[in-house]
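User: I'm curious whether this sequence folds into something compact or stays loose and floppy. Could you predict its structure so I can see for myself?
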Amino acid sequence: MIVHGGQATYGQKIGVLLLDSRIPRIPGDIGHAGTFDFPVLFKVVSGASIAKVIGDTDPALLEPFIEAARDLQRRGCRAITTSCGFLAIFQKELAAALEVPVFTSSLLQVNFIRTMIAPDKKIGIIAAEKNSITPQHLEGAGIRGEEVKIVGLDGCACFTAMRSEDPSYDTEVLKKDLVDAALRLTAEGDIGAIVVECTNLSPFSYAVQEATGLPVFDIVTLINYMHQSVAQRPYPDRC
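Assistant: Here's the prediction. I'll summarize afterward.
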């Protein structure tokens, strides 16, 4: 077998564009390589701070994200994602600029979930900050506002601590805050499934599921799905 080069590294089908931050990333977080059962390739987008992404996302960040995504594409990634759900606002532009699939946010799963649950049920979204999810973010993910109900962890002390000069947080406190938000979200019985928007909350999706009994989707479920789509494996040709 003759093999040919052209790249510095091989085998990473999924590329992850990371914000330019120093927040803790534990197993289950998109920024922790141990979250996945397969290799991923990380790239930090210089200057893409949390403050510039959450809320009124700085439009000047689009070009740096495109260039970083193209670099991951050149390095062999077959699909590319990002480490912040608020980047759904750039979904259409990034997808148009790349030759491989781009999925910026766990919110892209909403329309997929919509087809699987009863029409009288809504999809619950748990966001880092409810008030920072604008109609433009929902539009980027192809979401109609009336089909979702959103709660946020606005004012959560753990998120404030993550963004401090000494980024840190108490995992048990954040998990409790997340579960409390999920219980508020589902209290009226009108939610058929939950999407966790913030990639820092994925380590605790299991706790949301235990508390609500509902299907829970996050960026990790989407990455696992996309990885299989670009890294299919052969099966035995006989029983």
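Summary: The chain has two domains: 14-104+223-230, 106-218. Residues 171-186 form the longest helix (16 residues).
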